[in-house]
Design brief:
The protein is an alpha+beta fold. It has 7 helices and 10 strands.
């Protein structure tokens, strides 16, 4: 996968995109921004680091910056989704002393991701506001920046209220335990030496088998994942 982009940088404060996507393959990637992923049509799986979970219409996934994730589906299948990425400094500008708009991203104990379930009324409301937001992001009309802030606040207030009022159930992890455990091991030992030989000894499988299992799930190699995890760690220390 020579042309893959593991790190997808956000050029603007906000990115909002509503589209039907034809699935062409997947690989783990991450952003320097928060992400809201709302599935509107399709029933497939979503991967967040060592977690694989099933999602359906109304599933809203909240992902923190620098967390590896990807969408899973069968090649050729189409699905409809809204993706919203928000830079952390921007969220601070639309927050207040009383209201931290980023709270919803830290509602799960891992502080890496959360899964919320939206009902039909909430889905409709989210779509309407997101469409208005997207229009104003592209607009140069008078007051468009004010409206962008307004719609962004509406979405985050809505998501935070849902997050605070909705019980977060334990999500069944569908990821093969070998791959999930390897990712967890890398996370826990990222500042230590990690090699294919060390992983082979730890998990009692040869390196070729481990590498194949890992790439089948994540779309990237073990070496790529370890390097990128260390890069994200360095970025967190720098910023």
């Amino acid at each position: 996968m020579k042309n893959e982009v593991l790190f997808d940088a956000l050029n603007d404060n906000i990115f909002c995109n509503h589209k039907i996507v034809t699935y062409k393959g997947t690989f783990y990637h991450y952003h320097d921004a928060y992400e809201l992923f709302l599935l509107l049509n399709g029933n497939d799986n979503y991967y967040i680091e060592s977690l694989e979970m099933q999602i359906e219409r109304g599933s809203l996934i909240l992902i923190s910056p620098y967390v590896f994730h990807c969408r899973g589906a069968f090649k050729g299948n189409s699905y409809e989704r809204i993706v919203l990425n928000i830079k952390e400094p921007y969220i601070k500008t639309i927050s207040s002393e009383k209201t931290n708009m980023a709270d919803c991203f830290f509602s799960h104990p891992s502080s890496k991701s959360s899964l919320l379930k939206l009902n039909e009324q909430q889905i409709t409301e989210f779509i309407i506001i997101a469409q208005r937001l997207s229009k104003e992001i592209e607009s140069n009309e008078y007051g468009s920046d004010i409206l962008v802030d307004s719609y962004m606040k509406q979405i985050l207030v809505m998501v935070n209220r849902i997050s605070k009022n909705q019980k977060i159930d334990c999500v069944t992890n569908l990821m093969p335990s070998l791959v999930s455990n390897v990712i967890a091991y890398i996370e826990e030992n990222i500042t230590e030496e990690i090699s294919l030989d060390i992983l082979s000894d730890c998990f009692h499988h040869n390196g070729t088998y481990l590498s194949r299992c890992f790439k089948n799930i994540t779309g990237i190699t073990l070496q790529q994942y370890i390097i990128q995890k260390r890069i994200t760690l360095a970025k967190k220390y720098l910023f």
